[in-house]
Amino acid sequence: MQNHAFPYFQRLLGPYSIIFQVIFLSIVILGLSRIGLSLWQWDRVTEVTSLATMLIYGLRADLIISGMLFSPLVLIAPFLSNRQGWRLWKYLIFVWAIICFFLLIFMELATPTFIAEYDLRPNRLFIEYLQYPSEVSAMLWNGFRWPLIIGVSLTLALTFWSAKKTQHWLQGYQPQWSVLKTIIVWPLVLLLFVVLIRSSFTHRPANPALFARTADPMVNSLYINSTWSVYFALYNLKHETKSSAQYGEMSEQAITDNIAKLYPWLHPDYQASIPTLHRQQASIYREKPLNLVIVLEESLGAEFVASLGGEALTPHLEELKDDGWWFEQLYATGTRSVRGIEAVITGFPPTPARSVVKLSLAQQNFFTLASLLKQFNYHTEFVYGGESHFDNMASFFIGNGFDSVIDERDFKKPVFMGSWGASDGDLFNKAHERITELHKSNKPFLSFIFSSSNHSPYEYPDGVIAPVDTEKNTRNNAVLYSDHALGQFIEQAKNSPYWKDTVFLIVADHTSHAGGDSLVPIKDFHIPGLILGADIEAKSVSTIASQIDLAPTLLSLIGVSSSHPMIGRDLTVPEQFQAPGRALMQFSDNFALLQGDNVTILQPGHAAVTGLYDNKTALLSLGGEADKEQQATALAHSLLPAWLYSKQKYHNVDVTPLLNRH
Q: What pTM, to 2 d.p., does this model score?
């Protein structure tokens, strides 16, 4: 049987024609997916672009990934596309095409669920979750069962259809060119593929930043395809220590000079080993430092807190806000739990790279509150209801000052176990048990508690709350349950001997969802924060604050004077408390510096832009290009942590001189 699909094509390109035929099919698959995604997000797409523009630029992105996927076939074509290797050549084409089609189809079918959760195509988060197959499998099966079943079924069905199409093209496909002609044409085909993959005649090849044509990151992600998005994320992982350089370059001296302008409390004589040395004198003197308990709440954004403009799903937290310091404008540094851990426990600013919790150079000798407080004879402990190896938490904590890690293996007969481990109720019961034991030892302690019930698939025990949604396992019901468990814990703590000796911080790791049509959705970084316990008096903190300000503030409240590398503000100091404040936010590849109501946003491959953010309306109004001072300040904030990490300049300071002073 002769292949009549592309007769002229076959005569023109000989053994190379089948490669271009499967490329054509891959472009059709990706194009249809893009059309479907655009129709699904029609309002957002048409607000900033047109379907025609989307498809034209999308075709360019699809040609790039198709050229990358099928270039290996071009490389081996002259050696096998002859009479001796023809059968093997056809077999390799068939197998390789099936693998590529499966990959493309699977990634496109996984995209809608990923967009619904993260408001972007699959990216580096997709890769990071693949490292934890058991947890992710349980989450997908319990929370996304039908999308998973339908997605897998469609992937197999469409891959089978693509395979049959390729098989039809290969039937009767015979060598028509001589070996000499195949070799002569080969360099031209190679050159064509180089052009396809680079998609540029400049000194730099095209990358996803080139397709950032609108102010809506989600729409920008639709221009490309999910396979290329994930590939580029993998590529960037290999260059993560240089990831901040995508915004621009700055000398080390210029970085420290710009940082010093905004943080005058840093020591004026920069040490070579710690450029951000902060000699912090606690503003509250205590004869005996207080204990510290940090409760990091999973995905508890301001959108669930009525007094912060959200829904009324946290009644217990609302009651507690009048018992301590209530943060009205506190912002997370990122959209992942490890980013929240990084900011709260280490005071480290965000970068486009992964959190230091997961980076190799930060696994030992990296500064944390635990490693600092150990020098003051504190016992330091991490308490989590799930598996502590997730996101590399256990390794990071044990390597950086935590004496012990309590996780689901230590829970005996928990009331409820979900996909992510013991419920928040069980978690707080275990935390109370541990804190009570530690308090009896008459030794100060740091207890870091991380909740998990407010995480998809939103599982919690029956009969504990009156659900607000008819369906049980919803985000709203999970928030209500998490708040209930937290309220029970604090009530229990208030009636315990350790309350009067302990400062508590309750703060979210990040919000439940970050997305929208803004370069950086600032409103989706707004989180609740509350400091209470011991002798903490009620106060509303209206200044703009970042998660990186919490650790220095806590050190003063518990009465610990120290030297450390954290740049964050000590909000117990009047002049720092009364300042307009600033917040740092990393959203995918974009970085935002919020100072008062002024915002500076850095983007890869684009000039920094400025804008105004109205906290009351949660609206960001973009202006033009940022001025030199704004750009320098924002760039210094982004480059600083990458520099400190890569040069290993973010570590502990010996506090012995301070201890001897007392």
A: 0.81
